[in-house]
């Protein structure tokens, strides 16, 4: 059976996989005002999945897509492992790296102006506006601010969504710096199975920077968009016997067709990260989950194991399947801020971090039309602002952010469950807040 026919017959089960697999929901294009606010949508107050068993109208399931309908998704983002197959990312057996605390009481009242209206807003007000589930701020390596809301607790884990891409890009940058991956070689040199696909003639660098010329639409309102076939392939649920489409992420990648020329422009397409995950697996003999554990997580001094969602063949979803504890996300950010050094050791070569921070071509990025990110570029699956602080970030839908400001010596790790998937919905109250906090910490050090 063709993918489109399956979509018509089983839209809910495809939607269930799709919502996690591509980190977005077409139906969530409505203005935020149409959704209950953060307080009224609190998943604990609403009683989602509470009870033994929970009431019938408060049970969430992966198979029917109920787990990712707002406001229920505010519970699910902190409990993905209970709903779908995953692979563990071990922290190892070493003690957790300490996070010295120097908590401050002057951050909540900090004011800034929204990018959209110019109106004043306080830091604490922005957390509600962005449906923040948890946020940690490090300054000079010390924990100065920490808050949790809704279903996320300090000892819990949360979906990182497309922040995952930056982890995969970091692994690739590390391999390049260590001579295990040649960015100038073609993808087909590492993965011959992709030779006949659009990826085959692209260079590894073009995949790392998402400047490939591939036919992959992420227009979620278009039922013929390639993103739906990608979701169907990655769906771990059993497929109909007569299903004839790709049955895994790897099988899907082999079907991607060319569109445009490689290296012409930046185009944000999740399929690039899945392709990079395959390249990394071939170059190292380890999956991205195994490599993340052996090269970073087990050396970082993480408090908790992390995990990734997988397809029916056990392949980790490189484009958005990572889940971590919030403090551990901050530890990773602090390690990157310190040029790959953390927990008493050089975890990532400094050259790899330098390559990330240099950014890509502004002309390539400008063609993508991100109005709220003027002057930015994309490099190694990180978003580089090129502002006067040299800030750069890992970003995921619904508010997932790892924001690093080298000049201010600040790291912000935030997990959220904004009802609107696109970051354009929270950037007007997030980006100026992050910048204001950086300047405040510099002006008022403690």
Short descriptors:
single chain; 446 residues; alpha+beta; Beta-lactamase; seven-stranded antiparallel sheet; four-stranded antiparallel sheet; 16 helices; globular; disordered N terminus
Provide a short characterization of the protein structure.
By secondary structure, this protein is of the alpha+beta class. The chain has 16 helices and 15 strands.
Description:
It is a single chain. The protein has a domain at 111-163 and 287-443: DD-peptidase/beta-lactamase superfamily (Beta-lactamase). Strand 4 (132-139) and strand 5 (142-148) form a beta hairpin. Residues 1-30 have low confidence and may be disordered. A seven-stranded antiparallel beta sheet has the order 5-4-15-14-13-12-11, sandwiched between helices. A four-stranded antiparallel beta sheet has the order 1-7-8-6. The chain has 16 helices and 15 strands. Helix 6 (163-177) packs parallel to helix 11 (270-284). It has 446 residues and is α+β, with helices and mostly antiparallel strands. Helices cover 32% and strands 14% of the residues.
């Amino acid at each position: 059976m063709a993918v489109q026919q399956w979509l018509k017959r089983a839209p809910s089960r495809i939607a269930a996989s799709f919502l996690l697999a591509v980190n977005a929901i077409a139906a969530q294009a409505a203005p935020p005002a149409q959704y209950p606010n953060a307080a009224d949508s609190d998943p604990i107050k609403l009683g989602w999945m509470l009870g033994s068993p929970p009431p019938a109208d408060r049970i969430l399931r992966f198979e029917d897509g109920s787990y990712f309908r707002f406001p229920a998704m505010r519970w699910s983002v902190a409990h993905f492992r209970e709903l779908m197959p995953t692979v563990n990312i071990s922290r190892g057996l070493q003690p957790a790296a300490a996070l010295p605390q120097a908590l401050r009481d002057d951050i909540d009242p900090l004011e800034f102006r929204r990018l959209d209206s110019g109106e004043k807003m306080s830091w604490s007000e922005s957390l509600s506006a962005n449906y923040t589930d948890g946020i940690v701020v490090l300054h000079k390596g010390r924990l100065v601010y920490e808050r949790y809301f809704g279903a996320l607790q300090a000892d819990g884990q949360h979906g990182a969504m497309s922040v995952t891409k930056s982890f995969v890009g970091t692994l690739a940058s590390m391999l390049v710096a260590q001579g295990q991956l040649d960015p100038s070689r073609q993808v087909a040199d590492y993965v011959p199975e992709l030779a006949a696909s659009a990826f085959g003639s692209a260079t590894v660098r073009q995949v790392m920077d998402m400047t490939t010329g591939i036919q992959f639409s992420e227009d979620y309102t278009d039922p013929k968009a390639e993103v739906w076939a990608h979701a169907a392939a990655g769906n771990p649920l059993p497929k109909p016997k007569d299903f004839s489409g790709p049955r895994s992420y790897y099988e899907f990648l082999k079907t991607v067709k060319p569109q445009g020329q490689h290296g012409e422009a930046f185009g944000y397409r999740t399929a690039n990260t899945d392709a990079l995950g395959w390249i990394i697996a071939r170059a190292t003999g380890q999956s991205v989950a195994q490599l993340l554990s052996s090269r970073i997580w087990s050396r970082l001094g993480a408090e908790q194991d992390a995990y990734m969602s997988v397809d029916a063949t056990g392949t980790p979803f490189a484009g958005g399947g990572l889940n971590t504890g919030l403090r551990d996300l901050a530890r990773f950010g602090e390690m990157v801020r310190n040029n790959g050094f953390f927990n008493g050791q050089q975890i990532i070569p400094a050259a790899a971090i330098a390559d990330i921070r240099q950014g890509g071509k502004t002309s390539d990025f400008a063609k993508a039309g991100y109005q709220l990110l003027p002057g930015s570029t994309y490099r190694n699956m990180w978003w580089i602002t090129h502002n006067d602080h040299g800030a750069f970030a890992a970003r995921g839908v619904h508010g997932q952010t790892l924001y690093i400001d080298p000049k201010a010596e600040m790291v912000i790790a935030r997990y959220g469950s904004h009802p609107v998937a696109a970051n354009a919905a929270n950037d007007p109250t997030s980006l100026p807040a992050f910048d204001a906090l950086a300047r405040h910490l510099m002006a008022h050090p403690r």
